[in-house]
Amino acid sequence: MTDTPPIIYCANHPQVETSLHCNRCGKPICPKCAVSTPTGYRCRECVRGQQKVFETSRWYDFISATLISAILSFLGSLIIPRFWLFAILLTPVAGVIIAEVVRFAVQRRRSLRLFRIAAIAAAAGSLPFLVTGLFVIFQGSLGSILDVIIRLVYTSIVTSTVYYRLSGIELGR
């Protein structure tokens, strides 16, 4: 005689059979509801509750992060694209520096919105020279196309580096 386990249905989708359970609260969850964490699968409610614990930023951190990211990115976009080929190597370094200065200024407080705002501000800080270069191209000077490409590369790399460095997302996993 074999004991067959009872059929369990997802707490959020009662029509979906499942064998998964939240490893925190034990609620049955289907693959659509499951959130993979380093310690196993959890339901969205437990993950949301846990994230609130890690949201430690204060209102003034957003102002500090915005100003620091925009100003440092602007300064980087002033200097780094002048090095042409080395710009690709120097831009991630600039992104790390910006992220670490922001992290120091906000005293390591965390918030997903804070990380996103810092990344957006880094992108915005690099835009003045990029827009100027685009304007020159549209005026008919084709000599600055390479400059605009380098500035586009700078903007995209510095923005992603600031975000990934602040949010702690590990690449390559």
Quick one: overall form? elongated
Question: What share of residues is helical?
Answer: 55-70%
Q: Which parts are unreliable, with pLDDT below 50 for 5 consecutive residues or more?
A: none
Class per helix and strand makeup: mainly alpha
Main sheet characteristics: 2 strands, antiparallel
Quote the average pLDDT.
87
- Give the terminus-to-terminus CA distance: 44 Å
DSSP summary: helix tally: 5
| Total number of beta strands | 6
- Counting structural domains, the number is 2
SSE string, helix = H, strand = E? EEEEEEHHHHH
- Give the neighbour order of strands across the main sheet: 1-2
Describe this structure in a few short sentences.
The protein is mainly alpha-helical and 173 residues long. The protein folds into two domains: 47 residues, no CATH class; 109 residues. It contains five helices and six strands.
Describe this structure in words.
This protein has helices at residues 44-54, 59-79, 87-105, 112-138, 145-167, and strands at residues 8-9, 17-18, 20-21, 28-29, 35-37, 40-42. It has 173 residues and is mainly α.
